[in-house]
Amino acid sequence: MIGMHTPTVVLESVPSPRVSWGRPWIPSIGATTIGVVLVVLEPTIGAHRFQWAVAATVTVLSVWLSWVDERTFTLPNRWVGALAAFACVQILGAALVQTSIGPESGAISAAAIAAAIFATLEFAGAVGFGDVKFAAALTLAVGSVAGLFAVYLVPLAFAVSAVRIIARKARGADPRHPHGSSLAVAGTGVLLLAVSL
After folding, report:
1. Cα–Cα distance between 121 and 134 in angstroms, integer?
2. 116: Cβ–Cβ under 8 A, 6 or more apart, which residues?
3. Sorted alphabetically, which keywords does the UniProt record give (predicted)?
4. Is residue 20 included in any domain, yes or no?
5. What is the pLDDT along the chain (197 residues), one digit of tens a residue?
6. What is the total count of domains within the chain?
């Protein structure tokens, strides 16, 4: 009928679900603690065992990150931050103990190069920003043992990614893939080579 209108229903606002980030700083505190313990124990356990312990810790963190990346296509800041915190403790610990900071400056240079290369790739849309952070943190961590030799992590990661792309194309799958695994494999390879020499 003319003049009649339907009643207006007032909808109650529904509160949006609150995202719980938990305690994102806990992995970084844990990694920092492990790093400090290793630095303190180095005189007791010896340089070679110390390097193996650092390599094992970096490998565990990078494999964990690559597993997360494979499942979610993300590299969570809490875990990349933990790897970076561990790497910084190793660099600072070594710099305090040694009279020369040559190996530490080599590690920092390698990390800066890796970050610059991956940042360029990120601007080109080839990788995500998480890959840039992971590449920098992993190269710094590897460099704490390998020095400037850690710069070889980048071309090795590219080679691993190329093999993965070829394999995926051969299967007829989408060649796009998360790069965390390539970085983790490359980092582990460089670490094992550096510790074995």
Report:
1. 13
2. none
3. Membrane, Transmembrane, Transmembrane helix
4. no
5. 555 555 555 545 544 444 444 577 899 999 999 999 999 999 999 999 999 999 999 999 999 999 999 999 999 999 999 999 999 999 999 888 776 677 788 999 999 999 999 999 999 988 999 999 999 999 999 999 999 999 999 999 999 999 999 998 899 888 888 899 999 999 999 999 999 98
6. 1
Is 19 among the domain residues? no
Vertex 95: Cα angle to 94 and 96 (nearest 5): 90
- Is residue 21 one of the residues assigned to a domain? no
Tokens of 37: 């313990």
- Is residue 52 classed exposed, middle or buried when 0-12, 13-18 and 19+ CB atoms within 10 A define those classes? middle
Find out whether 130 and 75 touch, Cβ atoms under 8 Å: yes
pTM, entire model: 0.84
DSSP state, residue 49 = H
146 within domain boundaries:
yes
Tokens of 18: 């609150």
Q: Which residues touch 58 (CB under 8 Å, ≥6 apart)? A: 83, 86, 87, 138, 141, 142, 145, 187, 191
With CA atoms as reference, report the closest residue to 191 among 54, 81, 75, 64: 54
Q: Which two tokens stand for residue 100?
A: 């020369």
What's the chain's length in residues? 197
- Tokens at 74, concatenated: 């993300």
Q: What is the amino acid identity at position 93?
A: G
